Structure formats: structure tokens, C-alpha cells
Amino acid sequence: MAFNSAHWTIDYVAKTVTNNDSGTGNNVPSVTGNQTFVGSCLDFFQYLATTFAASAQMDDSYPIVSDTPTVYKWVNDWAFGHADDTKYLTGGDFSSSDGLEDWYSVFTIGTLAANTQVAIFQDDSEITPWWDVGNIDVLIKVRSGGTFIQSDNTSGTPTNGGIWLFTRKYGDKYNHAFVNLGNGRAPIGLDTSSDSGNNTLEATIQALYDDAGFTITFGTVSRDLNNGSGAVNYDVEIDCNGLAMTSVYEVLKLATQYGEVTDDLNGDDGQEYRSANEGTYADVKEAPFGTLAGTTVFGARGIWFTNYLAATFVLTDAAGATQAPPNLQKVNANHPDLVGTKILVSESLAGVVIKDQYTIASTTSSSITCDGTPTIDPDKTPLSGSVKVGDTLYAYTSFSGNVISGVTPSPSGETGDFYIPLLDVVGDATQELSDNIVYGSDFTVLTSVREYGFKPYDVETTFTVTGLTFTPILANDPQAS
Known about the structure:
The protein is mainly beta. It has 4 helices and 44 strands.
């Protein structure tokens, strides 16, 4: 714009030039929604050059010099009159007469989704935006009293004049970048676009995030995905509160959107969170906790998920190794008359249940340890279920290696052989499901459903890559009525 005395006040005694809106902020772009009262540094220079070329000002010291169309310096002790004055300038750099103060400009290039706010962080604090949404070209004070204001760069190194720019509007793919303004005006490319996996109403996702059951906990944890890699370390554990991973993805997008400042994510506000180990791990810019492809979440490095509806994710552990979940399958027995029936599904050989799968080495009041000849096969063992020692049935809540834990009632004193059914329950609904079973390869099982009044159902079949679903034939037994 063409600046004039309606926009700026020149104090020839104090040697200051002050924007007439400074201190009130009524004309900054964040308020007006446009650039009407903002002009280029070149416009500002030309206004002053014209003013001081007038005969009436020939006896006043000249205030400003320009090295290039984008580099300007106050001279002869002239200065801005208010800290807000640079908010009305764009497209260039300014330095003070004494060389102790610098305002350098950053400008974004690229395509931003509609109504995207560019957020700027300096020294780990947000600079309150005076600029409008969309691409920006603004002056940032980078040196004060002769000392550069620093921000950690992508490697975690404090950098003179460093700033971070974030574009994180809920519903879009996010972006961010580090800019070094230490040497002056700099461009930065930022692109955002609509995120097809993040289109649920924000209020709906906010309710899921606010639920006390959904938690994000930082700190090293050792976890076993039961995929053959054993227990490995992760940096963050996210309790998904039983949600589908598509919903988890949206909750984590909301947790890191612009304006999210109520929760501490590893020492940062959510809007500034970048990774579980900033300066070491590569940032996942479009979604800091992990991206979504179809219905599968690809977790960022160091992220562990627990308590989810289904394991539709691929993880990267703290060491940077990809950890794909195993193929988890279940036994599904269903029939309209299943209630009250006894259901047993277990590994078999030639139509006979293998009752000596394993041998007890020791017991406690709540655990059974196998002697390892053979070791417990995770590809034939539900994550929780039941153990049968002779004709005595015990429940268990988990197993790891050769140790079965959470055993009830107490198995103390038990010895000898035992086996682990895939399903051993009394039906109380028209469908009975086992817990998840890691599929490794096909194996033979015997499916048995019995109840007085029905003819026995004993059929040998195969547990496959898709698990096992069967509907028993429950024929009335006329001799058992």
C-alpha cells in the first residue's frame, strides 16, 4: 500500500516512526481479515524517503537506508516508536541504528487448505498471531539487546534466529518446518490438504479424547506384540479405551491440532508436539502420532497402542524397527440353541484331543510354569482362556513364554500333563468366542458340543488363517429326552 501520515507518525525530536494503530491492534490482519493496513518494507522506505526529501525536513537527520529491496536499517539513532510497528510491514528485514535489534522476515510458499492458521513458535513459545489465515509474510524480532533469540532446530541444537512454523487445522493433513532466520529473510514451503481419515465432527472426537479411559502416557515401556520379536521398548503408551484405530487416529489428530494447549505431551502443548523423542526421531509431519492408510494406522516411532478394538496398525519401536502385529484370529461357535451346551475346541490328532500338550514344571497360587518340553506354542494358545489339568479346569488371564499367569482357582500342587483348549465354556448366548489366537500355521482341532437331549457333535476340522467359525449340528436325541 502507499503509506502516508494517516498511517505513521514521525516524531522528529524523539527520532521515532510509529504506526498510528500500534498498541490498539484494530488494523492488524488477524482483526481485519485482510492486508488493507499492511504494506511492504519498500513502501515504508519510500514513504520516509519522500518525506525526508521535502525541503521542510532538510535540517532533520535522515532516518533509513536500504541495501537491497528487502534489507533496511535505521540510521542516525532513528527507530520504531512501538513494539507493534513491524506488524504493519511485510516483505523485508529491519535492523536498528545501533545494530542490536533485528527484525527478519519469513514467508510461506505452497498451497494451504482454506482457513489454515500458520502458527509461529520461538524459544518454545507461540507468537500470538497478528497475521491472517493462509500464507504469510511477516517480520519476526530475532535479536534483542545484541543477543539472538534461539530455538532448537530439528536436531535439538539451539539456533540463532530459529523459529518453527506449524499448520495444524483439524480435518486437514498437518505440516510444520524449522526456519533459520539468523541470516535474514527466508522462505519456507508448507502444504496442507484435506485428510480423508479425519472428517468426524470435532465435538464427537473431543468427547472421545476427554473420556478418562483414553490416555497418553510418556515413558519407556517394554511390550511384546506376540509377533515373534519378543518384548521391545517403546516411548509412549496410548490406551485406546476400546476404540477402533480409525477413531484413535482422529483423537490423536485432535490432540495435536492448533489451539490444543490444555494437555502436556512430553513437555509440549499438543499443538507443538512433534515426536516421542524430538531432535532424534524423524517427525511425522502430517500426523505426529502416526498416519492412516485405509483403516490401518502406521504408528510414529516409539508409539505403543493398547486396549484397542482391533489391531489394525503397524508399529515402529523405539529402536526404529517395524513391528507388525500378528494375525490374530478367534474360534467362533454359534447356534440358536447354544445356550446351556458345553463347548470344547482343542488341538487334536486323529479325532482325539491331545491332553498332554505340555508338562508342569512348577506352580504358584496364581501361575503354572511349563517345563519347556515342548514350550507353550503361542500360535495355538489364546491370549487368555482356560487350562485343563486332568479333568480340572482353570482360567488364566495371560501367558508369556512358558508362564501362564492369572490362574484361578489356585493351581498350587498340580503336577503332570496339561493342555490349553482354544475354547472351553458353557454357552450362555447364541455365539461364543475365544480370545485372540496368534495364527502361525494351520492345525487340526476337535470341535465338540454336548448337552443332554442333543446328539453329541464331535467334528475334527482345521484352525486356519481366518480362524475357525462353526455352527454345530444339534440334533435331538430321542433316547435322551
